[in-house]
Design brief:
- The protein has 304 residues and is an all-alpha fold.
- Among the domains are: 1-78, no CATH class; 253-304, no CATH class.
- It has helices at residues 2-25, 37-57, 59-89, 93-101, 109-124, 130-150, 155-169, 173-194, 199-213, 217-226, 235-248, 254-266, 270-282, 288-303.
- The chain is globular, with a radius of gyration of 25 Å.
- The termini are far apart.
């Protein structure tokens, strides 16, 4: 009975601390620009309240309150992640960016890689000005690097770090882009190693292979000068990754359907190319990228 009473008392005190905290701190963002300031203030307040009540309820109650504070912080982060994933799945690129931009000083790798993704996707929107695209692209890499520092065991961190490096290469010239190719491949492969069932990582590895399979001759010459063994691949290798991605998660991404069709075109298999390009054209579009994929698939089909 004493243990039950103590637990009930702890819950009551936590609720009271939470109510007072909301009264004093409700105007501040969840995570301030200086770090987890609001969370730290609330922890400090609850801790102070707990210490002031120790003579009445004892150390066991204090421990229960402290544990509750940690759980509360974890729940808040989980809420941010849930909102972010919902907005991403709904194609709400700008709303997603606005949400995560409020938490850009987070130390949580799960928040940071999603912020990198949001910055990158915002940069990809057609109405984003060119100078803004460049700024967002470099910012995305910055947050992806921070995420990698904090959690190198997360496959999504490796995936988005590689994507962001690739995007930055578009602004730094062909030499840098080729030099980065080895790093990009390494992180895509690490993402696949950490999660072999992630269709997106498999797709991106296929894109890497496709890109170097169709590399123009002048870029091959630059690569040969830079490296004794320059990056290279084949359409057959690209096809294996695209097909494996589709096997893992059928119809998960319009661009994977498109590249299956394009790769079969490169391999002179028009029957299979027609099949996948038609699927890409007919897939319901949810994002601006989906619409671009449909347009490209239709153009290729009309030219066949």
């Amino acid at each position: 009975m004493a243990a039950v009473a103590t637990a009930v008392t702890a819950r009551c005190l936590v609720r009271a601390a939470s109510l007072v905290r909301r009264r004093f701190f409700f105007k501040a963002p969840l995570l301030s620009r200086d770090g987890c300031e609001v969370l730290e203030k609330s922890r400090f307040f609850r801790r102070g309240l707990a210490f002031s009540l120790l003579p009445y309820f004892g150390y066991e109650t204090y421990l229960l309150i402290s544990r509750s504070s940690v759980v509360h912080a974890e729940v808040q982060v989980d809420e941010i992640l849930d909102q972010a994933d919902y907005l991403y799945g709904s194609g709400e690129t700008e709303k997603l960016f606005q949400l995560l931009d409020q938490h850009k000083n987070s130390e949580n790798a799960q928040v940071l890689w999603r912020l990198a993704r949001a910055l990158r996707d915002f940069a990809q929107l057609s109405h984003t000005p060119e100078e803004k695209k460049k700024q967002l692209t470099y910012e995305a890499l910055e947050y992806a690097e921070k995420a990698l520092e904090r959690d190198p065991s997360c496959f999504s961190v490796h995936k988005w770090y590689a994507i962001c490096i690739s995007d930055v290469g578009d602004y730094e010239g062909i030499k840098t882009k080729i030099a980065n190719a080895f790093v990009i491949k390494e992180h895509f492969q690490k993402a696949i190693e950490l999660n072999p069932k992630d269709a997106t990582s498999l797709h991106l590895m296929g894109i890497w292979c496709y890109t170097f399979a169709e590399m123009p001759w002048y870029q091959r010459k630059i690569a040969a000068v830079l490296f004794s063994t320059p990056p290279s691949s084949t359409y057959e290798e690209a096809l294996r990754y695209f097909q494996k991605a589709e096997d893992v998660e059928p119809n998960f991404y319009s661009k994977n359907l498109l590249f299956l069709g394009k790769t079969y075109m490169k391999l002179n298999n028009k029957k299979m190319a027609l099949l996948w390009l038609t699927k890409a054209k007919e897939r319901v579009s949810h994002t601006e990228e989906d619409k671009q994929v449909q347009k490209e698939a239709l153009e290729i089909l009309n030219s066949m």
